[in-house]
Amino acid sequence: MGRLKGKVVVLTAAAQGIGRACALAFAREGANVIAADINLEKLKELEKEGIEVHYLDVTNTKEVEMFATKVDKIDVLFNCTGYTFHGTLLETSEKEWDFSFDLNVKSMYRMCKEFIPKMRKQACGGSIVNVASVVSSIIAAPNRCVYGATKAAVIGLTKALAVDFVKDGIRVNCICPGTVDTPSLRDRLNARPDPQKAYEEFVARQKMGRLGQADEIAHLVVYLASDESSYVTGQEFVIDGGMSL
């Protein structure tokens, strides 16, 4: 406990899943947490944990700019927003392609563009953690064409930011999860003709024979956010239950 004591953490997609688990983990470790999401109803549940919440559409540049003006100090930025489109290239419309890149990649550009200058002004720099995926430049998965392309881009963006701002004391890393049991995954499974079969197929991809849990991902994110990882930057951390083996 207290590994993030006194640090200000800003994160997106905090209403549920990995984002929610990380928001709670940050708070348990003593951070002052500022959580954002478009699902304000679910997000408000975090207020009882002492977490500050804000509605934020990360695809809206003006909203991101306004949100950033409300944050005077920042030590950690966790870019967690993401969207999974199911389909091959031939099944991916231009609209789906553009939306996937806007939400999965450009949202991180928007957030970093606003918060890196704040970190540069601080003597202590800061830590940025982006959510990529093992389905990216690491491995491919069926029907994940645009998703994999966006997550490969996140890895590339992470490394570019890391090398550009290392002299400012800003560390930038990304996590690459396998399949994690989250509400968004359950929604996608329930949309399939046979949800149980779809679930079993997802489990079969993980060589450990189970899905990951959001809290397990949060442990890694806390490490990257904390000073324990002070000599780590520009890296992608695979946490996938053996999916990529």
Primary descriptors:
245 residues; alpha/beta; Rossmann fold; seven-stranded parallel sheet; two-stranded parallel ribbon; 9 strands; NAD; NAD(P)-bd_dom_sf; SDR_fam; 4-oxoproline reductase activity
Quantity of strands, as a count? 9
Helix content: 40-55%
Major β-sheet strand ordering: 3-2-1-4-5-6-9
- Shape field: globular
Instruction: Write down the secondary-structure element order.
Output: EHEHEHEHEHEEHHEHE
Span from first to last CA?
33 Å
Q: Using the 3D structure, state the CATH architecture.
A: 3-Layer(aba) Sandwich
CATH superfamily: NAD(P)-binding Rossmann-like Domain
Briefly note the structural class of the backbone.
alpha/beta
Query: What fold name stands as the CATH topology?
Result: Rossmann fold
GO cellular component, one term: cytoplasm
Pathway: Siderophore biosynthesis; Amino-acid metabolism
Catalytic activity: (R)-3-hydroxybutanoate + NAD(+) = acetoacetate + NADH + H(+)
EC number: 1.1.1.104, 1.1.1.30
Summed up, what is this model?
Pfam families: adh_short_C2. The chain is α/β, with parallel strands linked by helices and 245 residues long. It has helices at residues 17-28, 40-43, 61-69, 94-120, 145-165, 183-190, 195-205, 214-225; strands spanning 8-11, 32-37, 52-55, 76-79, 126-131, 170-177, 180-181, 212-213, 236-239.
